[in-house]
Amino acid sequence: MTPLASRIDPRSEGFLKNREANLASIETLREHLAKARAGGGEKYVARHVARGKLLPRQRIDLLLDRDSPFLELCPLVGMHEGGKVPGGSLVAGIGLVHGVPVMISASEATVQGGAIGPWGVKKADRIGEIAWECRLPAIHLIESAGADLPNQSEIFVPGGAGFRHITQRSEAGLPTLSLVFGSCTAGGAYIPGMSDYTVMVREAAYMYLAGPPLVKMALGEIVDDETLGGADLHSRVSGVSDYLADSEADAVRLGREIVYNLGWQPSGPAPTGRGDAPVYDADELLGIASADLKVPFDAREVIARVVDGSRFHEFKPPYGNTLVTGWAELGGYRVGVLANNGVLFKESSEKGAQFIQLCNQTNTPLLFLQNITGFMVGKEAEAGGIIKAGAKLINAVSNSKVPAITVMIGGSYGAGNYAMMGRAYRPRFLFTWPNHKIAVMGSEQLAGVIDLVKREAAAKKGQPVDEAKLGMLKQMLAGKVEHESSCWAATGRMFDDGVIDPRDTRAVLVQALTAIHMAPVGGTTSWGTFRH
């Protein structure tokens, strides 16, 4: 395959405006990430460090292979609620330990003592889902006060599933390691208790179903942390702990040795390509991606700056050309790419469905680059069968069995979100760029629809339109939709696995594909009814 030919002009006014706006958005991303990574704030971080303890990301750094990448997942969860519990009090992601991709989660003990609240439960469930589907060993770095009791009604029932998942993972041959660095109370104690391997730090880690205050209240017993559930007790007497570490660094060393002795091997196919870098500079993505989503841009320019050698074998290029489909390699892994180049028409929808079938036939993972306003509407489109064609594409997306990754590189509106493997269709990973917006429809379109509906209702009643009241309603609804459709509101609600700098897209995708290929990759030839 020959490299794609680029047609952008880096000196054009549009390119430079996009670049400036996207750099500003990336700076906003960095600010949000910095706040999330600050944990509970200077006071609580200082208190934690003064106790001789490492911060969660320092523990992760010690655990990972030197100079290896860490793909952090859902770092900004809950930020739409003001970021009161940064990252759900949990740091999570995929990294390499002795060359093995593992799912890592670390309690953020500087935030409410590492207690898990509603968003922490949702985040833990999401990373558990990824680890299960990718067949990744899991490592928990624990220092947690257990459940966030003021929010117990929201977490008690769904939170219990996490313990069930650990035991199901074990039954399936997927090991879980728990390295306990501090207090591990109540429900939090069940995580190491149900893990395949547990390490506790001497004179620092404590594990009990009820702490000293509750034991005194319930039984009248007066007991200290160490006697009730210290690392020495659980390593020498109860047997809950399998390894007694002398320090945090020693616990990490033991964790790394355990992973090494697993002898873990991928059960999916290895990369077959060279994995060479794209011909074009990824920095140019900042000038290509439209900051104003009403301005279209060619998805091939994105593909050329992401895939190996910028090589792309396009499928049916002149047919249904508002959807670009074809094959490429990423990090040596073969992928089938579907990328929006405009609204979905009947032809592009049918092409997409056929392409998904072909990729399933050859066990080829899918990459969706989503920038979509939706399906074509209007008299001609309806008569031409746009509903049938759209249903065919959504059927293919729904029943596809090969792993999929979605990157939101622009807008995501209406049923176009579904047809391009949005969150509800369970892609293995989903990331967004900072220019991304997601909603049933854009704020201007929604305001226009409300205007027409209200005017029609008033006309039917023979009443005049209250222009001031209608104008205020339109403004209020448009502002609400504009706020809720931002990438920040979306990532806070965990509609994605993280907002990324467009220039990091290739690196993120290669890490994701490496994790995906730890598990077998298989497609299907079984589909629901395609309406013709």
Shape type: globular
Provide the low-confidence segments as ranges: none
Determine Rg (CA atoms, Å).
Answer: 25 Å
Helix content: 40-55%
Largest sheet: 8 strands, mixed
N- and C-termini, Cα separation: 34 Å
Structural class: alpha/beta
Average pLDDT figure: 91
The number of helical segments is 21
Q: Count every beta strand, where a strand is a DSSP E run of 2 or more residues.
A: 15
Report the β-strand fraction as a percent range.
15-25%
Provide the descriptors you would attach to this structure in a database record.
21 helices; eight-stranded mixed β-sheet
Structure, briefly:
The chain has 532 residues and is of the alpha/beta class. The protein has 21 helices and 15 strands.
Written account of the structure:
The chain has 532 residues and is of the alpha/beta class. It is 42% helix and 17% strand. It has helices at 13-37, 42-50, 56-63, 118-134, 152-159, 161-171, 187-194, 212-219, 225-229, 231-238, 248-262, 285-288, 299-303, 346-361, 379-383, 386-399, 415-419, 443-461, 467-484, 487-492, 505-516, and strands spanning 70-72, 90-97, 100-107, 138-144, 176-185, 197-201, 206-208, 243-245, 313-314, 323-330, 333-340, 366-372, 404-413, 429-432, 437-439. The strands form two sheets. Strands 1, 2, 3, 4, 5, 6, 7 and 8 form an eight-stranded mixed sheet that branches. Strands 9, 10, 11, 12, 13, 14 and 15 form a seven-stranded mixed sheet that branches. The longest helix is centred in the first third of the chain and has 25 residues, at 13-37.
